[in-house]
Amino acid sequence: MNSDAYLWLTFVLLGLATTLPRAGFIVLGSRYALPATLQRALRYAPAAALAAIVVPDIVLVDGAIAVFNPKLAAAVAAVGAALAWRNPWLPFIAGMAVLHGLRAL
Amino acid sequence: MNASQHGFRDGAREGFVAFLPVSVGLIPWALVVGMAMTSIGLTPLQAMGMNIIVFAGTAQLGTLPLIAAAAPLWLIVATALALNLRFVIFSAAIAPGFRGIGPGQRWLAGHLLTDGVFATCFDKLQRIDDPAWRLGYYLAPSLWTWALWQAFALLGIYAAHRIPAGWSLEFMATIALLVLLVPMARVRPMLIAALVGGIGATLLRDLPLRLGVIAGIGAGIAAGFAAESWPSSREPS
Fold first, then answer.
1. pLDDT digits (tens, 9 = 90+) for B31-56
2. A65 in helix, strand or coil?
C-alpha cells in the first residue's frame, strides 16, 4: 500500500482529472467546440476503459487466463441480472451469491 | 425578494422534483464505492477525502484496483481521464445552458456535473430564458447528488469495516463497473470498443508499467470508431 502523502497527491490529481473535463466547456462557454470527429471517437473511451479494467480482473487467475473460475461466473451472473432486471441491487446480490457459492463447493 | 431570487427558487424546486426519482439510483453506487475504497485499505479519512476531492464514481471505482496495485501515478491519472472523457462531451453539450451566468458559478456547476444531472437538465437549460431559473434548476439536483453521494459513501465505509475480509467485498467494485458497462454495450460499436478494450488489456497484461491498460483503451476506442463507420456504409440500402 502507498504512503499517506502519496495517496493524497493521487486524489488531488484524480480530482483535477475529473473537474477539468467536466468544467472545461461550461467555463469556456459555447465559443469553443470540439471537432465532431473527435467527439465521436471520445464516446468510446468510457466503455473501452471500463472493460480494460474489468476483463483482466475476471478472466485471470494468478496471471493466467482461466475460462472457468468463480469470478468470471459471478461476473456473468451480475451481467445477466443487470440485463434482465432494472433493480439496481440485484447484480450485486447475484454476483456475490455466485462467487461465494462456487468458492464454497 | 427580487425577481431573480424568485427565478432561482422556482427553478431549484422544479429541478429537484424532476431529479428526485433518478437520484435513488445513486444510493447503491455510493454504498459500493464507500465499501470498495475501504476494501483496498483506505482509512475512513482517506476514503472520504477521495470521495470529496474526486467526486466521480466511475473514476473512483476504476482507479482503485490500480491504486491498490501501486501502479505508476501517471497511469492512474490517465485511466481516470479516459473514464472521464464522456464529461468533455457533456460539458460541451450543456455549455450553452449557462449563458448569462458568471465564471464562479460555472466552475461550481462544472465540478458538480454528473451523468444523472446532465440527462435531467440538458433539455430545459436550452429552452428557458431566465439565467437565475436555469442556475437553480441545475444546482438543486447537483447539490442533492453531492449530499447523497457523500452520505451513502460514508455509510458504505463504516459498513465495510464491520464485514469480514473473507466476504471479498472488493468484488463489489468489479460488479459495479460491469453494471455501468452493460447499458453502454447495448449499441454494437460500443460493445466492440468494450470487447477490444477488455481483450486487449488482458492479452497485453505483461507489458511493463501496466501499459496494457492504456493500450487496451486505445485499441478499444479505435475499434469502436472503426465499427461505427464500417457496417452502416456497407449495408445494402
1. 989 999 999 999 999 999 999 999 99
2. strand
What's the longest Cα–Cα distance across chain A?
61
Determine the 3-state secondary structure of A44 from DSSP. coil
- Residue among A2, A26, A89 minimizing CB distance to B106: A26
- Asked whether residue B139 falls in the same domain as residue B24, the answer is yes
Same domain, B102 and B139: yes
Same domain assignment for residues B91 and B207: no
Q: Which residues of A touch B199 (CB under 8 A)?
A: 55
B90 touches chain A (CB under 8 A): yes
Specify whether the CB–CB gap between B92 and A79 falls below 8 A.
no
* Interface contact A18, partner B, CB < 8 A: yes
Contact B159, A92 (CB under 8 A): no
User: Quick one: which H or E segment has residue A61?
Assistant: strand A60-61
Q: Are residues B13 and B117 in the same domain?
A: yes
Looking at the structure, tell me whether residues B113 and B37 fall in a common domain: yes
Contact B171, A96 (CB under 8 A): yes
Task: Give yes or no: residues B232 and B203 share one domain.
Answer: yes
User: Mind listing the pLDDT tens digit for each residue in B74-83?
Assistant: 999 999 998 8
Pair B228, B159 in one domain: no
pLDDT for B169 beyond 80: no
Smallest Cβ–Cβ distance between A51 and the set B42, B103, B198 belongs to B198
Distance from CA of B209 to the nearest CA of A (A): 14
Q: Which residues neighbour B4 within 8 Å (Cβ) at sequence distance 6 or greater?
A: B130, B131, B132
Determine contact: A96 vs chain B, CB below 8 A: yes
Q: Which among A15, A48, A57 is the nearest to B65, CB-wise?
A: A57
Q: Which residues on chain B are in Cβ contact (under 8 Å) with A2?
A: 67, 70
Cross-chain Cβ contact A26/B68 below 8 Å? no
Q: How many domains does chain B have?
A: 2
B138 and B83 part of one domain: yes
Q: Which three cell numbers stand for residue B138?
A: 441545475
For residue B232, give its domain range: 185-237
ipTM of the complex: 0.83
